[in-house]
């Protein structure tokens, strides 16, 4: 079986969709999205409609990784909620069609911002975009998981306990060299774990600006993308992931807000974003935010270590970028350790 992630068996896809997707008619023009490192994603343009195909990478993969079936399920469940998602069309679990599982969803037109500086926007529009990002995040954590059929989407128990355990195992499985900061961070996250406060919500797992599509004319979010890491867990992990991203250097590499004059650009402070989120959810603030921030740096280090390993093995979605991203593993680990120790 091929491990090529750059191409797609277009004839096989077209044949399958003609049989299984009502209204599908070719011819079909296929283009691969170069963004994203995990699940290869393709635009399918037809005369009447534009679709997106997202597939599990072919080849040998880490257990439980690249769960496109979970992505499909959660987005299907959220349709009609206050959390905007693309319309899901079908899930193909038959590996024989193109070599791995895939799903088809609508292409959502609009704007995607690769970095929170959002060059070219006015300060007022930047404020609006980030505020809607905040609104959607709060709405996500208020979803009634029983009502939408997702109460079994994640296990019971302490979210941080199981996540630290899971990503520690994933990291060890893809480890390519020793990293003292990561070793220390894995130990200290266990030791400093807060008591379970009972919050159990749907979480995205990789909530950030570049995983969102905004309206072409307004600052409204039209779709949240990339649900691979979603589960039932603790909402503060999603919130801390936003703040983690912002602490990185600005620009297309770090995609953070480090070094920016936020007030002049119309961008909120970390504290203001957290306060607005708490207001929307009726919370009185968050204690020990450094733990949640440290956890997010740890998890991202684990994720990009996996990307690096796939790049070295030759089955990354974008091999060249995979190797470049791998250089940041020790940086994320050290940031996580610093945040955790600050408390």
UniProtKB/TrEMBL annotation:
UniProt-listed InterPro entries: ACAD10-like, ACAD10_11_N, Aminoglycoside_PTrfase, Kinase-like_dom_sf
Transmembrane intervals: none
Pfam families: APH
Kinase keyword on record: yes
Entry GO MF terms: kinase activity
Domain Aminoglycoside phosphotransferase: 30-253
Keywords, alphabetical: Kinase, Transferase
Protein name: Aminoglycoside phosphotransferase (APT) family kinase protein
Phylogenetic classification of the source organism: Bacteria, Pseudomonadati, Pseudomonadota, Alphaproteobacteria, Rhodobacterales
